[in-house]
Design a protein that fits this description.
With 118 residues, this protein is an alpha/beta fold. The chain has helices at residues 9-20, 26-35, 39-54, 85-103, and strands spanning 22-23, 59-65, 73-81, 111-117. Strands 1-2-3-4 form a 4-stranded mixed sheet. Helix 4 (85-103) links the parallel strand 3 (73-81) and strand 4. Helix 3 (39-54) packs antiparallel against helix 4 (85-103). The longest helix is centred in the C-terminal third of the chain and has 19 residues, at 85-103. It is globular and about 35 Å long.
């Protein structure tokens, strides 16, 4: 009899996210996403929109802790870009206006997206 190993759907999601994002402090990001799994569809949608406006830019995910309230955490998606600042800000404005301003409500203020110049 042949034995099959069944991967959990949760693991599949992390594999997919890791294929389109770079995790900083992977264990911290994974723990945060396990706790706030509702962010996963938003992250998948965000990556598609980022690719549309920023091409093949690397996007990193990391968790920031509020220095005044050590218990409050939020996830940051940082779009790495070497575009000229004016072009990068123009693309970010389009991203905000075309998608993020409406979509961000579903993040419950736990996901932020910003530029990171390389």
């Amino acid at each position: 009899m042949r034995e099959y190993i069944v991967e959990s759907p949760r693991k599949d999601v992390f594999v997919r996210l890791e294929s389109i994002y770079a995790f900083r402090e992977e264990a911290t990001v994974r723990t945060f996403l396990e706790k706030h799994s509702f962010l996963t569809p938003l992250l998948l949608q965000a990556r598609a929109k980022i690719a549309e406006l920023f091409g093949s830019s690397i996007v990193t995910l990391d968790v920031a802790v509020d220095p005044e309230d050590g218990k409050y955490q939020e996830l940051w998606a940082r779009i790495q870009t070497d575009l000229a600042p004016q072009d990068a800000l123009s693309a970010l404005t389009r991203f905000d206006e075309e998608w993020w301003l409406d979509a961000s409500a579903s993040s419950q203020n736990l996901l932020n997206i910003k530029l990171e110049y390389t």
